[in-house]
Amino acid sequence: MERDLEEGKEKNRETISMLKKPYLAALGKQWDVMKRFFEINENREQLCSKMTVEEDTAFHIAAYSEEKELLQHLVKLLPPSSSLFAALNKTNTHGNNIFHEVAATDRVETAEFLVKKLQEVRSPDEGKLEDLLMAKNKLGETPIYRAVAHDTAIWLLRKDKELAKKKEKNYLTCLQLLAKMPHVFRSYSEFSHMGKLKKFLYYCLPSQFEDDDVSDDAILIKRYRAMWRAIAKGWPAINKLWQKKGMHSSASELTESLVKADDTWKDFPCKLNNEDKTISLVKEDTSVDKDRGGLLSLCQRMFDLVHEQGQTSGTKEVGGDGTSKGQPNERNDHKSYQHPLLEAASNGIVEIFDKMIESYPQVIEYISDDEENILHVAIGHRQWDIFHRVEKMEVIMKRRLASRIDKDDNTLLHHVAEGKRYFGRESREQAAGPAFQLQEELNWLKVS
């Protein structure tokens, strides 16, 4: 047994060593050299061989390098004895097939080419396209799960809507994953702090970079995009802004598609504790005298917060983007929620919130495992935009949401007082010092 294992390792080393020339070419982005190597007849048999220590084939490398032309060339070079389906289904040490690698890029046209080619040459006794798209890697991720932050996800979802319901190793759907990625949405970006000129350019820029989404007779749209592509080549700042807008647009479109395709979030189990609870004026906490009442507890917490902030305010430096240098924008102790609406609310992603409420308004009353509702989450994580949206639902807010007490007997007032869960992008005022932090906390006290 051990001897067979050693022989297998030796054979792998020999194969990898034999393919060092095309791999060196790939490292230097010398794609023509790589093409010429595999054009030699005896080398074509090695197209599906392991080229790297992570067992990537030439197809894996072409896919994650975003080289569509190289991938097309390699497909043409496949010998008759090799199956395209088998080549695309080949996995590396991470369990990723070729579609996993393509999905992690923005190359929708590459995915389209592979699907079209596969449909042309696939024999009846081979697996189906769905088998490739639904294949899970070692993390339990399907290609669409890996593609969530890219345009490829939208394209894959159009091919098979059932992909939206697939879960990865941690039992997260694509919508749940997207709710954990606030940085891809406009509501999370520095858009509200943009200068007038930058904001004007943002609105002027097209949502898409390429013309794949428009018909051939849409001449004006194509010319408009061509003009901006020419400008973006000479202005890196505009190109960066355009990429950001494209990301925001893709995230919004993907949200809409996932909300429609994945209805599992509508049947989310809510394990309610139907036992009526009384409101405790004092949160159980050894740091505060229990006999002083809720308001005194709140004041004590705010005093501690100001004192704590004052200890570090002398060394805190405000960055140009309004955040404190040396500190991450996203706190490590950010509480996670299983339901995508609550997770999105905790991150301030209004795009997901709006689409889910529009699709299924009853979801507004869903609660977490800790029996926290949308109002607890918005206040606990200091998400003004989410709070204001809930505030407009006046009747349900006053009669249902505001009266809920969570699993730890916390009321909304307790969540206002709790500063540990405060998370997100610090404003210039908050970064400036504890006084502004206290003012912000008092505002939350007023609205609650």
Automatic annotation (TrEMBL):
SMART domains: ANK. InterPro entries: Ankyrin_rpt, Ankyrin_rpt-contain_sf. It comes from the Eukaryota. One of its GO terms (cellular component) is membrane. Residues 310-334 are annotated as: Disordered. Signal peptide: none annotated. This is Uncharacterized protein. The lineage of its organism: Eukaryota, Viridiplantae, Streptophyta, Embryophyta, Tracheophyta.
